[in-house]
Every structure is written in structure tokens, then in C-alpha cells.
Design goal:
Helix content is 58%, strand content 11%. By secondary structure, it is α+β, with helices and mostly antiparallel strands.
Length: 281
């Protein structure tokens, strides 16, 4: 049984047949593999959240909040509202009697969004007029939790099984494995060689030699390859436009993303999206 394929198919069922915006938030990405196979389900698939996260301070805050959400998950599943005013259900993912991440089912409006929007504007310098324009794209009616419980519990169990199957022992990994795993975990962010050197206590020349000798490509080429593979998955399964996909996988400019994608894949992102959608029809 291919656990990752089963997870993907079940999430697609939840999205297409049940109308649920499911997002995976594994905090131990070195164990629960997310890139490529499940990247299309690793972001909030709505224009409002994606726009907020194009602002670095807001994106950083969102990442930091995940640890606090995980703490609250110790009490079980719950329904809450994020700092930007998006309401969502949260379900814990457990592995070997500890929490390793959570699932969110979100994209819903809260009852009084204005205070959230004003606070987001002031704290992260996000233009309020754009937030006001995008907020109505969120869903108005939030589903009954009992129904969500019934649908999400099987997914939690499947993700826990995936964790057990892919668990590794960090102490047995060499430096190359650890560096590659680190990049896979943070490749959608603005990661640099300097970040890697600082994290592993290595010189730039050692990291460059490591990639050339053991990976067969430069750090930048490896990073770009990961982002392009993620973009291909998003183009297949996510209901996002090209600009939103570019930002989601780590490109700060959609035109540059389109140029790189075409040079690597042989067709534009839009053409690839249309071709893969036809093949799945």
C-alpha cells in the first residue's frame, strides 16, 4: 500500500467532494515527507492568506504561531481564528505518543473581521484596502464540527502511519543528508547558503563542495529544482493563479518564475496547468 498516494487521494476527495480546504502543517518535515507528493496541500489555498504571506513579517509570524497552535493541540481538536481573521478547524497529528504537526480545515470568515484586518495592517504593513478586497473571498458558513471530525479522523490516522514509515534516525545521517533534509524543509522560504552555513557551522566552500560532489548540482540549482517540482504539483491540484503559485513555492516574482519554469519544463506554467488538467479530466 502506498501511504502517500492514499493520503493525496483522500485529501483530494475532501477538497473536491466535500468542499473542505485541507492544509497540512507537519512540524517535523524531516520525518513526515511533504515536498513534491503533498506540497499542494501544504499551503492555505485562498487568495486572502496567500496575499498576507507575501509580506515577510506576516509570513514569519504565521510560522512562529504554528508552535503555539501545536501546544493547544495537546488538548485535542478545536476551532479558532488566526491573527488575520481566518477561522479554521485544527486537528493534531501524533507520532509515537507526541505531537508532530496538525491539519487545518479553514478559509472561513470570522464574525468581526475588521479588528483583525486593522491589526494585520498596523503590525505587518499589509495594505488594508487589499485585505478588505480579498476577505470576502473566504467562505461565510463554517461546517458543523461533528461532520468535520468524521471526515478528518481517517486522515489523521493515515498521516500518523506515514510518519512511522518514514521515520529516520538523525544520528545515522551524514552531513549531506542533513543539509538536503534542511533545504527540503525550508525551500519555499527565502533560504540562502549563508543560512545553511550558519545552521550547520560550515564554511561556504564546504557546502559548495558538498553539493558538487554528492548532489551533482549547485545549491541554487537544487533549490530551484525543488521549487519547480512543487509548482508542478500546485499547477495540477491547487485552485491558484500563477502569481499565487509563484509566491507559494518561494519565487518573489511571477515573471521570473514563469521564465524559469518554461526553461526547465519546456512549457509555460499556464500551458502546463491546462495540459495536466486535461489529462485528469
Amino acid at each position: 500500500m502506498d501511504t502517500i498516494t492514499d493520503i493525496k487521494n483522500y485529501i483530494l476527495y475532501l477538497k473536491t467532494q466535500c468542499g473542505l480546504a485541507v492544509t497540512l502543517h507537519p512540524l517535523e518535515k524531516e520525518h513526515l515527507i511533504v515536498p513534491s507528493e503533498l506540497i499542494a496541500f501544504n499551503i492555505h489555498e485562498n487568495s486572502y492568506c496567500i496575499y498576507v504571506k507575501t509580506h515577510p513579517a506576516a509570513q514569519k509570524h504565521c510560522a512562529e504561531r504554528q508552535r503555539k497552535i501545536l501546544e493547544k493541540c495537546k488538548e485535542g481538536s478545536f476551532c479558532g481564528t488566526c491573527y488575520a481573521g481566518v477561522r479554521e478547524y485544527i486537528y493534531p497529528i501524533r507520532g509515537q505518543e507526541r505531537l508532530i504537526g496538525f491539519i487545518s480545515v479553514g478559509g472561513y470568515q470570522c464574525e468581526a473581521p475588521n479588528s483583525y484586518i486593522r491589526r494585520t495592517e498596523e503590525r505587518f504593513s499589509v495594505p488594508a484596502e487589499q485585505l478588505d478586497a480579498l476577505y470576502p473571498s473566504l467562505k461565510k458558513e463554517i461546517p458543523d464540527k461533528r461532520r468535520i471530525d468524521t471526515l478528518l479522523n481517517p486522515l489523521c490516522l493515515m498521516l500518523e502511519l506515514a510518519y512511522f514509515k518514514t521515520e529516520t534516525r538523525e544520528g545515522s545521517e551524514n552531513l549531506t543528508d542533513r543539509v538536503v533534509r534542511y533545504i527540503r524543509q525550508y525551500h519555499t522560504q527565502n533560504i540562502t547558503v549563508e543560512d545553511i552555513c550558519r545552521h550547520f557551522g560550515c564554511s561556504r566552500s564546504r557546502i559548495s563542495h558538498l553539493f558538487k560532489s554528492h548532489v551533482g548540482k549547485s545549491f541554487r540549482e537544487f533549490l530551484t529544482d525543488l521549487r519547480i517540482e512543487d509548482a508542478k504539483e500546485l499547477l495540477k491540484y491547487a485552485e491558484l493563479n500563477i502569481t499565487e503559485i509563484a509566491y507559494s513555492v518561494g519565487f518573489g516574482d511571477s515573471n521570473y518564475f514563469s521564465s524559469v519554469f518554461k526553461s526547465r519544463v519546456g512549457m509555460s506554467p499556464l500551458a502546463y496547468q491546462k495540459a495536466t488538467n486535461r489529462s485528469r479530466s
